[in-house]
Amino acid sequence: MQDFFNGLYQSFVKTFITDDRWLQLLNGLLVTVEITLFAAVIGVVIGFLIAIVRSTYDMNLSGRKCRSFGDYILKVVNFICNIYITVIRGTPVVIQLMIMYFIVFASSRDGIIAAIISFGINSGAYVAEIVRSGIMSIDKGQFEASRSLGFDYKSTMVHVIIPQAFKNILPALGNEFIVLVKETSVAGYVAIQDLTYVGNLIRSRTYEAFFPLIAVALIYLVIVLILTFLLKKLERRLRSSDH
Amino acid sequence: MTTDNVLIKVDNLCKSFDNVDVLKGINAEIHKGDVMVVIGASGSGKSTFLRCLNRLEEPTGGKIYFEGTDITDPSVNINIHRQKMGMVFQQFNLFPHMTVMKNLTLGPIKLLKKSKADAEKRAMELLERVGLADRATAYPSQLSGGQKQRIAIVRALCMDPDVMLFDEPTSALDPEMVGEVLEVMKQLAKEGMTMVVVTHEMGFAREVGTNVVFVDDGVIVEQGEPKEFFENPRNQRLKDFLSKVL
Ligand SMILES: Nc1ncnc2c1ncn2[C@@H]1O[C@H](COP(=O)(O)OP(=O)(O)OP(=O)(O)O)[C@@H](O)[C@H]1O
Ligand SMILES: [Mg+2]
Q1: Band of the pLDDT at A66, cuts 50, 70, 90?
Q2: For a Cys staple, B57 with which of A75, B51, B202, B215, CB 3.0–4.6 Å?
């Protein structure tokens, strides 16, 4: 018994204390958070832009002939957006990340920037579909009421449609962020020292699997729980407006 | 066109959806102060006609002149003209994420560039007139159907329109709430508002309408002053229709 606890203690010290390994884990965590945060911002921006293009096309041009120069532009942009969504959703994120790092960023080899852009672009495709479904779920009457007051298409989107859509999609959007946090764990493929990478590194250095891996798992879990909590709070705040 | 007091002139208006002809050449003149009541069987094209007037539906043929301008001309900015054409829907279509006051002031502030204070003052006046001043801070989901529709009317009025278009404004209401909405519309008519009203409320048509038009299969087959229209219908389809609804 004494030996067992002693062994446990030794493992703990080896995993966290020796060589300031807790500090390495903390740095890994910061890298993970950094990549996730910036990628989420990129993903939301890309996602909303693409969703607006796609739903504008669906509402105005789908099944109709182009009549103006603007119509042709919209058609082309919509087509490009569709290709983007198809390619991004049809290929593994690790491959996208490696393409970004080893091909696009071949000369600079700035891993973190490559990862942020790569995960942002990846997330954008999913966010776009979430936002689009949110926009399409808003009753047509809302759109017509706004247009009948004299608002143009853009103002109608900004003042009437998007705010309502946003409230509806918040749970799905939250889910996407949670997926994103965990997906960044493949960043080690391009030599980024994120949380997972550091955990695995400690495992290989110390020949101790239990503590490093469980610790890393728990840290992810805590991040996700915090995210879930914040989202619930935001949802409640938004919902309080229409009872 | 700007001479006399024709507010809206509809000239051979046609509308088809995927090769189905819904409106087949509608001609009408709406003068300032008119209350034109549009009646007809379900599917005859009443809503389509009304929605073409502010181009919520794009006409596929004919012309619509509003205050002298051909608004079917693709080069006109329809948004400007829509500000002058209030519309009230069967399903109210209030913005659920905004308070009543926000619903009422969004257009005046963003489109008419009124100050918030001015817009709210005007909204409050109109709310008082429909007896809903105490609901300014409520959200639409906290209102009854009749209240929602009265607010929807006020929302359109806050834009200070020259004409109000109503598409079956009382059809989605519980019977006990129909009266309060019709009362507001009656009041509006009395104050001289030009109105085009699609409705099944024959009592309203008779009492408030300055002229009644009967739409059948995409054309106006009969129109006239309410008294003559209801007492001496000539068209057989109109006679059948009236015998069913009266
Ligand atoms: N967006 C659309 N696409 C295709 N067909 C349509 C569309 N809108 C209306 N229609 C058709 O046009 C015809 C007239 O419709 P409309 O809504 O104008 O009738 P209505 O007289 O208002 O009927 P109701 O009294 O039921 O409201 C109907 O046959 C309807 O199916
Ligand atoms: Mg109708």
Answers
A1: confident
A2: B51
Alpha carbons within 13 angstroms on the beta-carbon side of residue A131 total: 25
The partner residue sitting opposite B56, judged by closest CB among A147, A167, A242, is A147
| Whether the Cβ atoms of residue B205 and residue B219 lie closer than 8 Å to each other | no
Say what the pLDDT of residue B42 is.
94
What pLDDT, on the 0 to 100 scale, is given for residue B140?
A: 96
CB B155 within 8 A of CB B163: no
DSSP string, A59-106: HHTTTS---SHHHHHHHHHHHHHHHHHHHHHHS-HHHHHHIIIIIITT
How confident is the model over B79-109, as pLDDT tens digits?
999 999 999 999 999 999 999 999 999 999 9
State percent of chain B over pLDDT 90. Answer: 96
CA nearest neighbour of B196 among B229, B226, B238, B163: B163
CA B143/CA B84 separation, integer angstroms = 27
Ion ligand 2 — residues with CB under 5 Å?
Answer: B 47
The pLDDT of A4-16, averaged and rounded, is 83
Among A152, A160, A167, the residue with its CB nearest the CB of B95 is A160
Residues A80, A82, A85, A86: is their CA dihedral positive or negative? negative
**The tokens 């990549």 sit on which residue?**
A35
How far is it, in rounded angstroms, from Cα A123 to Cα A42? 8
Mean pLDDT of B161-171: 97
Beta strand B211-216 with B194-198 is: unpaired
Neighbours of B19 (CB within 10 A): 5
CA distance B194 to B187: 12
* pTM (predicted TM-score): 0.87
Shortest-distance ligand to the CA of residue B45: 1
Angle at B221 between CA B199 and CA B195, to 5 degrees: 35
Tokens of A114: 């490559």
Q: How far is the CA of B47 from the centre of ligand 1 (A)?
A: 7
Ligand 2 centroid to Cα of residue B65, in Å, is: 22
3-state secondary structure of A204: helix
Separation between Cα atoms, residue B181 and residue B44, nearest integer Å: 25
Q: Nearest 5°: phi and psi at B30? A: -115, 120
Residues written for chain B: 246
A20: three-class secondary structure by DSSP: helix
Whether the pLDDT of residue B210 is over 60: the answer is yes
pLDDT category, B3, cuts 50, 70, 90? low
Q: How far apart (Å, rounded) are the C-alpha atoms in residues A98 and A103?
A: 8
Give this complex's ipTM: 0.94
